[in-house]
Every structure is written in structure tokens, then in C-alpha cells.
Amino acid sequence: MAVAYERIADELREAIRAGELKPGDRLPAESKLAERFRRSVPTIREALRALRDEGLIEKQHGRGNFVRRQRTSALRTNRRHQWEKNRAREPLAERAQTGATEHDTGLTVDDLVFHASYRKVEADKDLAEAFGLPEGTALLERTYRTRYAAESAPFSLVTSYLVHSLVAKNPDLLDETKEPWPGGSQSQLYTVGIELERVEERVTARPPTPEEAEELELPPGTSVLALRKTSIDINDQVVDVSDVILPGDRTEMLFTTPLERW
User: Fold this and answer.
1) Which of 72, 85, 122, 246 is the most buried (most CB within 10 A)?
2) The pLDDT value given to residue 247
3) Which of 145, 177, 172, 147 has its CA nearest to residue 160?
4) What is the reported pTM?
5) What is the CATH classification number for the domain harbouring 37?
């Protein structure tokens, strides 16, 4: 049998789902809800905490509890890599029309706010093993954040690593001001003669770090998907290792595997 706070949470949840309480609406004060449901304020707080944990409402400091606006979702499929490869050699005007985030979200270039930062780092043990290179090898670390202009949190947290000596052949690839690069990483690699043969992706789920939860604006209890993407060229050499942190409340991953016919 449901306890008091669960029944209160159920009623408020149904009001949100039925549209009686709309995204952005402020809920009545805790004292008003206590009067309405004839329960104590601590019981009301338990009900509101349950709704916050589900991501249905959010508490804004000094203002109260609000129905949480549904954030733009992203559908990430494994077919995006072939789509990117097909575009890598297209003319600049063609590549500039859309990118991977637009592909995943249905938004347009003008809808997005993009930020990139670059720095030269040395490969630690993990990255050295991923690239099959000695520890200390010079890498180009690239950090990306892309968000919908109407929202404050990015779709993902992306950190990509390239072998510095490979991409240094084209000085533009060391310049963060050239981002966003039309056609993405595969088009960048094409400028230094690199063609990808395959992309391997390993996905795990875990609780976010406090920093990840804050930057991604995750509701309490929301997990993240941690994706390690390894790009391998036609000579079987790892050329790009990327760590992507995806928010579990707005990311759907779809894997389609073509099967050969008998």
C-alpha cells in the first residue's frame, strides 16, 4: 500500500503528464501543498524529492519548485560514422550545411552554440595503450561542447585525442579557431591523407562525477553513458581516441547491424 508521500507524488505526476501543470510552471509552495493534501510539510518534501529524482520537477534556489522543461533529445546511431565518411570529401559549401549534432538532434546549424579548446598533452598509460604508442607521445587534446541555443547544458562532454605529429602536417588542424570544422573529424583527417577503415565504440553506464552532473545539469540519480570511441585507419593504425560523456536523460543509442544474405 502506498505511503502518504507516494500518493501525493502520484497525483502531482499525473497533473504534469496530463498537461495540467506545464513545463516551466511553478508548483504551489510547500505550505500550500500541505494544506491541500492535509499532510505535514516534511511529507510534502518527500513527495517533491521523488519527483525531482525522476527529473519531472526542479528546485530553483529562492524561487521554489518548477515543472522541468523537457530537453532536446539526441538519437545517436552507429550509422553516423558512414554518414560522416561520405561527407568528408564533399565541397566546403556542402559540408558546412550540417554536422553530427544536427544529424543526431534534428536541429540546424543556427540553433547551436559550439565551443572547442585545444592543447598539446603527453599520452598517459591509458591513451598510450589505446594508440599503441609509447607513454609520453605528444597528442592533441580537443575538448568540445555543443548545446542548443535555447538551453544551457551541452548535449555531451567530448574529449578527443589525435597524434600530434600526424595532424601537424596541416597547421589548420592545430588551430581551435577553425572549429567547428565542416565535415567533422573525418574531414579533418582527410586533409592529412588519413581514411578511416572502422570505428569501435565501447559504452558503459555509471553515475556521473559531481562535475559532470553540474555541467550536464542532470536530475539527481541520473546516470551517464561513457563512450570510448576509437577510430582506426585503413592501415590498421589508431588515429583518434575520443571519450564522450552522454546524459542518460536525453540520449538514445540505436545500433543497426546489416546482415549478409545467404
Assistant:
1) 246
2) 96
3) 145
4) 0.83
5) 1.10.10.10
